[in-house]
Amino acid sequence: MMIKQELIHKIKDYFDLNVYEAKVWLALLGNGIASAGKIADVSGVPRSRTYDVLESLEKKGFAIVKLGKPVKYIGVKPRIVLEKLKNNIKQNAEERMISLSNVKETDEFSHLEKIYKGGVDPIKREDLSLSLKGKSNISNYLREILKNSSKEVIICTNAEEIESKFKLFQQTFIFLKKANIKIKIALFGDEKLISALSNKLGIKIKKIEIDTKFFIVDRKEMLFYLSKGVDSDDTAIWLNSEFFSEAFASLFEKAIKIEN
């Protein structure tokens, strides 16, 4: 059975195999049970390499050795291989997460923190303004500054944003309430949705007619979204300016009074 080179290369990429492994596995699937010699003939892989490739596929779970003589091989069903690979990736990811979490407890990580805080030209927080790109980057930074608040958090966004990230915001609000942080929130959007969110979060929410997104922490720093899209290319600016944050907070409070 002739197998197209395009299929071989795609199978190789999908299943993280080399070219010889992909050829041999496809040959096994197409022949049911076969000896190494036959697989070499069908796959076009040199006979001297076929044994090594079959052994590699067996270790990876793509092939099974049939007991008896002569030794023959069976190709493992693609669906079974796929599930096995998915489970392996999930397990590796979980192990990696645990490993990364443990890094914080090491002496090396403490040393990194000291290097960051006490460098030759240390970064002063009051000198910073940052441009952030991508939903994930912005969300991570937002979570960090909210958790570092000490007095007050002002949130102005749209109801759909809160609804789509409800679990994230719920956890953040629980944290802020436990820390006795004052929360002021105003949302643009459907009145019924805003009312439902207010009940679920246990926070009084004002409805506004301005579709904008910003977060002010302790009237000292502010995260302001430059885009309102739903794609991964969101852009935001973080400003560490007490003057600017206080001015925006005052405008926010005036807007709420006008709306009411």
Name its key features:
single chain, alpha+beta, Arc Repressor Mutant, subunit A, Endonuclease, Chain A, 2 domains, 7-stranded mixed beta sheet, 3-stranded antiparallel beta sheet, 11 helices, 10 strands
Molecular structure report:
The protein has 260 residues and is of the alpha+beta class. The protein folds into two domains: 5-80, Arc Repressor Mutant, subunit A; 128-259, Endonuclease, Chain A, CATH 3.30.870. The chain is 55% helix and 18% strand. The chain contains eleven helices and ten strands. It has helices at residues 5-15, 19-31, 36-43, 47-60, 78-103, 107-117, 135-147, 159-164, 166-178, 191-201, 242-259; strands spanning 33-35, 63-66, 72-75, 129-133, 152-158, 182-188, 205-208, 214-217, 221-225, 235-239. The strands form two sheets. It has a seven-stranded mixed beta sheet, sandwiched between helices. The chain has a three-stranded antiparallel beta sheet with strand order 1-3-2. Helix 10 (191-201) links the parallel strand 6 and strand 7. Helix 2 crosses helix 3. The radius of gyration is 29 Å and the shape is elongated. The model has no long low-confidence stretch (mean pLDDT 84).
Do you know the CATH architecture of the largest domain?
2-Layer Sandwich
Beta-strand level of the residues, as a percent range?
A: 15-25%
CATH level-1 class of the largest domain:
Alpha Beta
Mean pLDDT: 84
How many domains would you count in the coordinates? 2
CATH superfamily of the largest domain: Endonuclease Chain A
What structural category arises from helix and sheet content? alpha+beta
Q: How many β strands by DSSP?
A: 10
Helix share, percent = 55-70%
Report, as a whole number of angstroms, the end-to-end distance. Answer: 76 Å
How would you spell out the order of helices and strands?
HHEHHEEHHEHEHHEHEEEEH
Radius of gyration: 29 Å
> What would the principal axes of the Cα set say about the shape?
elongated
* CATH topology group of the largest domain: Endonuclease, Chain A
User: What strand line-up does the widest sheet have?
Assistant: 4-10-9-8-5-6-7
Main sheet record: 7 strands, mixed
Low-confidence stretches: none
